[in-house]
Specification:
Elements lengths: L1 E5 L4 H12 L3 E6 L5 H7 L2 E4 L7 H8 L4 E4 L9 H22 L3 E5 L18 H22 L4 E7 L1 E3 L6 E5 L6 E3 H13 L11 E6 L2 E2 H8 L7
Parallel strand pairs: 1-2, 1-4, 2-3, 4-5, 5-6, 6-10, 7-9
Antiparallel strand pairs: 8-10, 8-11
């Protein structure tokens, strides 16, 4: 399997790249900063420098050409303002989707965020920092656009909404459901779930609602992913 990971120098993404490379998959790591190339190569990926805030569709399509799947794990990062939440967490995710479609990539995995439903229909949650509200709005807008594309047959899609991220060692067990109470999950376990989703034979059809929330839990990762991707029985 060939996987292109956008934001390949991020904390979850680096863990994912190492897992995929160790498992024998070919990884293309998309990074904005040339200074990160050596780290991405050391993780086992072929690094491509492309800035998703300024690149065009052709540039990104060239970078992901030949991939079986793309993963959007990029983010504006701590300290960025409201404007970059939109240009990275929304617009860059959609640019990657445009490029994936242009290059004929069949699968898209979006790393989103727990809590995006709090801003649905223009709602503004009380007591939440405006920059974080902007982040949630950007993630929700990306989700909605990608879900519409998947429903139209553009690609297979899964949206993963992790809870609060920690640097605790991974346990190899998680809770993965359509809806979960707020909680935390280690970056190690997020990466393991992403790898399992990428290696699944097929993802849920768009009409099944391929949006999964992820927290720490007791179910082994492979079992949780397999169960979560099983279509609901007919009524």
């Amino acid at each position: 399997m060939i996987v292109a990971v956008a934001g390949a120098h991020g904390q979850v993404a680096r863990r994912l790249v190492r897992l995929l490379a160790e498992g024998g998959d070919e990884v293309v790591g998309l990074v904005r900063n040339p200074d990160h190339v050596d780290d991405v190569r050391a993780d086992g990926a072929r690094a491509v420098v492309v800035d998703l805030e300024s690149a065009d569709v052709e540039d990104v399509a060239s970078a992901v050409s030949g991939a079986d799947a793309v993963v959007f794990a990029a983010g504006a990062g701590a300290g960025s303002g409201e404007a970059r939440k939109d240009t990275v967490d929304r617009a860059a995710a959609l640019l990657l989707a445009d490029a994936a479609q242009a290059a004929g990539v069949g699968r898209y995995v979006l790393v989103s965020s727990y809590g995006v439903d709090a801003v649905r229909d223009g709602a503004t949650p009380d007591g939440v920092d405006p920059v974080f509200v902007a982040y949630l709005r950007a993630k929700l807008a990306a989700e909605e656009d990608l879900l519409a594309r998947a429903a139209a047959g553009a690609f297979e899609l899964v949206v993963l909404r992790p809870g609060g991220l920690t640097d605790s060692p991974g346990t190899g067990t998680v809770s993965l459901e359509r809806s979960l109470p707020r909680g935390q999950v280690s970056r190690d376990d997020v990466a393991a779930v992403l790898a399992a989703l990428l290696r699944a034979t097929s993802l849920l059809p768009a009409e099944e609602g391929p949006v999964l929330e992820l927290m720490a839990g007791d179910e082994p990762v492979d079992a949780a992913v397999a169960r979560s991707l099983t279509p609901a029985p007919a009524a």
